[in-house]
What we know:
Radius of gyration: 23 Å
Strand order of the largest sheet: 1-2-3-4-5-6-7
Low-confidence stretches: 1-17
Amino acid sequence: MRPPTDYDGTRMPAEAEEGDPRAPAMMICARLAGRAIIRVVSRCEDAQENSQLDLSECQLMQVPDAVYHLMRHTELKSCDLSGNVITKIPPKFTVKFSLITDLNLSNNQMAKLPDEISTLACLQRLDISHNTFVALPHIACQCPSLHTLLAHHNQIIEVDVDRLARSRALEYVDLSDNPIPPRTHEELKQITRPAISISEREKEDWEEDLLI
């Protein structure tokens, strides 16, 4: 029987075994990357049928250009990018997917949104929870059809309360589990529309001392 000389996925080539000690790890990374690409292409094909693009948990650092190409003839209605390591959304995203109504960006590493988000005239629901935002994106208040904004579990300390209160479309904003300052916290509690969910604020040590 001919001894195995070519790499068949179960045996590493001799040079990998005897050469660069990083080779096994590099092969594993390449194999995982290949699986991720296959997953993305497969989900794009599904979205061509149902107009709902689910790229959650795909190990993405950004939206691949190939996605824009694969979806160029599809009028996308929803896009789920949750559970990746995305740090930003490029402006061209809003141009290519201008008709989406639901955008899920939760569980990534984002701290800001592009101004072009406001051009998504059909966007009704935006989820930016479990990211690294320190300020509630004011641009979200400018989306003409956005009625639900989920921003819980961030590091938000800055909220433009007046702008939020003036928003015509927003109906519900979830700001729970954010380190919102006391004054802003009280101002948010006074707003009647949109409905705002905020966590009960824990009193500072100096406030506790005043009660003694």
